[in-house]
Amino acid sequence: MSAIEAAAPTRSAASVQRHETLHVLARSKTFLAGATIVGFWVLCAIFQARFFQDPNALSVHQLASPSGSHWFGTDRNGRDTFARVIAGARDILEIAPAATLLGTVLGTALGLVMGYFRGIVDDVLGRLVDAVLSLPVVIVALLAIVSVGPSKQTTILVVGFVFTPLIARTVRSAVLSERELEYVSAAQLRNERAPYILFAEILPNVLQPVIVEFTVRLGYAVFTVATLSFLGFGIPPPSPDWGVQVADHYGFLSGGFAVWPVLFPSLAIASLVIGVSLLADGIAQGFDG
Amino acid sequence: MARFILRRLGLAVITLWLISVLVFCSIQLLPGNVGRSILGPLASPQAVAALNHKLGTDKPALTQYREWVTGVVKGDFGTSQKLQVPVRPQLTAALRHSFELALIAFLVVVPLSLIGGTIAALRVGTAVDRGITTAGLSLSAVPEFVTGVVLIAVLGIWLNVLPISAAWEPGAGPWTQFTHLLMPAIALSCVLFGYIARMARAGMVEALDSDYVRTAILKGLPHRTVIRRHAMRNALLPTITVIATQLGYLIGGLVVVEILFNYQGIGRLIYNAAQAHDVPMLEGGAIVVGGVYLLATLIADVLYSLLNPRIRHQAAE
Asked: Which end of chain A is more exposed for a tag (fewer CB within 10 A), N or C?
């Protein structure tokens, strides 16, 4: 009973704080700019099939420059680059958030365990985390995807697993300071079991860094997924994914033939990652202020 | 100090061993038969078995791991299955190429980002500060291949001022080689610019707010002297050591940039090995990259503690 009474005022305080955070976010230019860009691409991904032409429709005009009938020109198969750029938002906006979510859930669990138990568990897991982090993300992903073969699901799993140690490290340091606080000793004295203390007591209090970490990682996930697609280890080719489009055409750049089908998907990737990172920055500032 | 370095060295060795296990395990998962993928689908099963026996790929995994690790410790990385040549000379040549590229990238990005960060800190809160911070944030979020193709389109094709490939004609002079490497170096350094400028800005803002800078101003030193002799020295030294930890990041970017600009570095070597399922080459490349990263972080840690008296004393305790 006493636990419920004690929890009631903190919950309302938390909701007041949440309200304030939302208020700060709504006035933050960084956040709004980011939200507009990301929102635009989300709308494109959802409504592409209804309002725009088929991204895989072929035509006889190959590698055409931008014109009235093909706003962004055409690619080497005569497909409309504009339709493909709009449709390309879809796969990456499914894969990147799913991978980030996976990494955040696993990383938070791992970080809670490492920070709370410390000692030998922390040492052993910490070494493993360091080992994974000493290889560049792209190379770890390359190793894993070569073993399993590229597909949407593999990309989600691989990027999620690669992000797990990064997120675990952040959560661990947040937990280290939380575990010294009185509410944790109180729970320990009540003889609560460790999973309860970890997930019901400590987790709600480290949620802010977890949310910030999620949004920051989301930007990196878009970065990584696009890079893997470009390298041919991400989303397989018939998809109009932006990275795949660039990979398909950058070989034609040298003669100046295919500037458009390379440039427009590139700009699309750039705008999405910038949008997500502005969003993340706005959220981090909202929590700080 | 010696104990601190020894401890860090020990940890680095353990981490390197863990990397070797990770790399080996993930490659053991590789589907397909090594002998079959070399000889092709038409080869007889006997020939495939004989080749597998010769390569040692029919031995138990633990034996293969032991043989590989003892080889690597002795400096023998085995023979490439694809190219049928020893792995080590390939690795050292690729590594040297990558170092040249990374060096140019560092020479481009470090001064620019330190200056950018300092300017932002001196004009903190103004449009200049916001402009530099936002530009840095945006640049560091964009993948290297995107910056790369935009650079190729603008500098290489429309303005036609730089060559669009890093592969130069044999016998090209150092200046030509440098111009070929400049565009990949810029593509590589864009991501780092935002990060380093941010660090430099934060360090400068903190230094400018400190008591010793106030004292320097109050005792009547010229503004320029205060900035250069007092604030910058304290703010930027730690930033410079932190830059070394970004080397690992740089290596990841190298894979992409080297492929885009057709450059024979370590990133491209690993990528080609991954595509060809060339196990010794892939293992060697991955372990070398991990080793280089650990060495760089070690040097950065030691430098940082040498330059920062507070950490130096903590380590001595």
From this structure: N
From the CA of B43, how many Å to the nearest CA of chain A? 24
Q: Helical H runs in chain B?
A: 2-28, 34-39, 45-55, 61-73, 87-122, 127-141, 144-151, 174-208, 211-218, 223-225, 233-244, 247-260, 266-276, 279-307, 309-316
Composition of chain A by helix, strand, coil, percent to 5: 80, 0, 20
B190 lies within 8 A of chain A by CB: no
Q: Worst-scoring range by mean pLDDT, A277-286, B111-120, B298-307?
A: B298-307
Q: Tell whether B183 is within 8 A of chain A (Cβ).
A: no
Cα–Cα distance, A213 to A79 (Å, whole number) = 38
Which value does ipTM take for this structure? 0.80
From A114, A116, A108, select the one nearest A130 (Cα to Cα).
A114
Tell me which chain A residues have a C-beta less than 8 angstroms from the C-beta of B271.
Answer: 142, 231
Interface test with A, best of B21, B27, B139, B146 (most A CBs within 10 A): B146
Amino acid identity, residue A176?
L
Which of B113, B141, B104 is closest to B201 using CA atoms?
B113
Cβ <8 Å between B30 and A146: yes
Q: How far apart are the first and last CA of chain B?
A: 10
What percent of chain A shows pLDDT beyond 70? 92
